[in-house]
């Protein structure tokens, strides 16, 4: 991994993204927000016994922020976690084809929730948190559709074993809520939280630069 250059302080404190997810970085860039640093949080993301999805998402996002923010006291720190939940069940990030297949079979013909927990820490010590929920419906999947999706490889490392921004879009006829939340970060809510704490990104809609 390339070493990030030292942060340079100007009129506005920089933004540190506490995430290893390339999707979150790409989503921020989509709305003209460029983090000064990307610092993955090295934490244990194992779910606790009987932990429900919403509590798990909030806890992990808070833990990421707590792991990164102390090392960057002069910056805004953004941490997030995305959870695919089927009822009270937390679906895993698929690391092998068998896990992705199990997820897709569970999701087939059913609605599920995608929970996006966001934590933003400001340089002045203030903090904001939010949990965003998107409902997603999968069509009933035939065996050949599941196998074709698995063969494409998009499932790897994805919560619930799918990526809505890729081929899985053909398998999802309906969502209710934030699309970007399903991709990995609810943008409207994130931009509002950053702006509410005083972050200003030049050119970013919702985070206007100081005049």
Question: What would you say this structure looks like, in words?
Answer:
It is a single chain. This protein is α/β, with parallel strands linked by helices and 211 residues long. The protein has a domain at 15-93 and 111-135 and 178-196: Maf protein, CATH 3.90.950. Helices cover 29% and strands 21% of the residues. The chain has helices at 22-30, 53-68, 97-107, 143-152, 179-183, 187-196; strands at residues 15-17, 37-38, 76-86, 89-91, 111-121, 127-137, 174-176. Strands 1, 2, 3, 4, 5, 6 and 7 form a seven-stranded mixed β-sheet that branches. A hairpin with a 5-residue loop joins strand 5 and strand 6. The longest helix has 16 residues, at 53-68. The protein is elongated, with a radius of gyration of 18 Å. It starts with 14 loop residues before the first strand and ends in a 15-residue tail after the last helix. Residues 1-11 have low confidence and may be disordered.
């Amino acid at each position: 991994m390339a070493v990030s250059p030292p942060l340079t302080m100007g009129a506005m404190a920089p933004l540190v993204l506490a995430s290893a997810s390339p999707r979150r970085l790409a989503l921020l860039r989509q709305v003209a927000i460029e983090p000064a640093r990307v610092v993955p949080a090295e934490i244990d993301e194992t779910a606790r016994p009987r932990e429900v999805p919403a509590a798990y998402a909030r806890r992990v996002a808070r833990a990421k922020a707590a792991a990164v923010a102390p090392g960057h006291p002069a910056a805004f720190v953004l941490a997030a976690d995305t959870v695919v939940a089927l009822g009270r069940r937390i679906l895993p990030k698929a690391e092998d084809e068998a896990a992705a297949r199990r997820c897709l079979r569970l999701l087939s013909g059913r609605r599920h929730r995608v929970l996006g927990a966001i934590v933003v820490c400001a340089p002045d010590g203030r903090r904001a948190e939010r949990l965003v929920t998107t409902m997603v419906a999968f069509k009933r999947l035939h065996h050949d559709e599941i196998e074709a999706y698995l063969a494409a490889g998009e499932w790897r490392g994805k919560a619930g074993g799918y990526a809505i921004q890729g081929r899985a879009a053909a398998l999802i006829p309906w969502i209710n809520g934030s699309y970007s939340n399903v991709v990995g970060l609810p943008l409207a809510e994130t931009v509002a939280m950053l702006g509410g704490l005083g972050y200003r990104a030049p050119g970013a809609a919702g985070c206007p630069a100081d005049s």
